[in-house]
């Protein structure tokens, strides 16, 4: 029996040999500029998915996991439907540039909650980046 950290479990030589290879793979990914998390958990988001599809899945998942309230998810999606989806909704998220996001933000009329729309767009971008 071998002690690894706080856990005691039977460990075979094959288990010990696989650890360094995984560690080297993570290090090499980080050096290439890739996200090492994607080696452990491969990305699930299709880069060809539209901004709208990713936004809907992001807010539905966050509400389902109690990260945000259901009401907040609905209101954020309504804001995106009103101001963002008409121009960027059907485009693949990988093809949308930061400039296009800012142009969409600048086109929101005063008093329409532009900062809240921007926050929702940022949440979708973060979700897309985190899930691949």
Write the H/E string, N to C.
EEHHHHHHH
Q: What is the strand content?
A: under 5%
Q: What share of residues is helical? A: 55-70%
Strand order of the largest sheet: 1-2
In whole angstroms, the N-to-C terminal distance is 39 Å
How many helical elements? 7
Q: State the major sheet.
A: 2 strands, antiparallel
Low-confidence blocks of residues: none
Give the total of domains.
2
Structure description:
With 132 residues, the chain is mainly α. It folds into two domains: 2-40, no CATH class; 51-131. Helix content is 63%, strand content 5%. A hairpin with a 2-residue loop joins strand 1 and strand 2. Helix 3 packs antiparallel against helix 4, helix 3 packs across helix 7 (114-131) and helix 4 (70-83) packs across helix 7 (114-131). The longest helix is centred in the first third of the chain and has 20 residues, at 13-32. It is elongated, with a radius of gyration of 20 Å. The two termini are 39 Å apart. The model has no long low-confidence stretch (mean pLDDT 80).
Defining key terms:
mainly alpha, 2 domains, two-stranded antiparallel ribbon
Helices and strands, with pairings:
Elements: E1 2-4, E2 7-9, H1 13-32, H2 37-40, H3 51-64, H4 70-83, H5 85-88, H6 98-106, H7 114-131
Antiparallel strand pairs: 1-2
């Amino acid at each position: 029996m071998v002690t690894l950290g706080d856990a005691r479990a039977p460990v075979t030589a094959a288990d010990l040999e696989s650890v360094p290879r995984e560690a080297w793979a993570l290090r090499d990914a980080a050096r290439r500029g890739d996200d090492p998390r994607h080696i452990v958990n491969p990305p699930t988001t299709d880069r060809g998915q539209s901004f709208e599809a990713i936004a809907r899945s992001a807010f539905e998942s966050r509400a389902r996991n109690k990260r945000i309230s259901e009401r907040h998810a609905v209101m954020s999606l309504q804001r995106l439907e009103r101001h963002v989806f008409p121009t960027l909704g059907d485009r693949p998220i990988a093809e949308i540039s930061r400039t296009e996001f800012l142009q969409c933000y600048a086109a929101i009329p005063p008093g329409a909650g532009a900062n809240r729309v921007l926050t929702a767009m940022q949440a979708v971008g973060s979700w897309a980046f985190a899930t691949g």
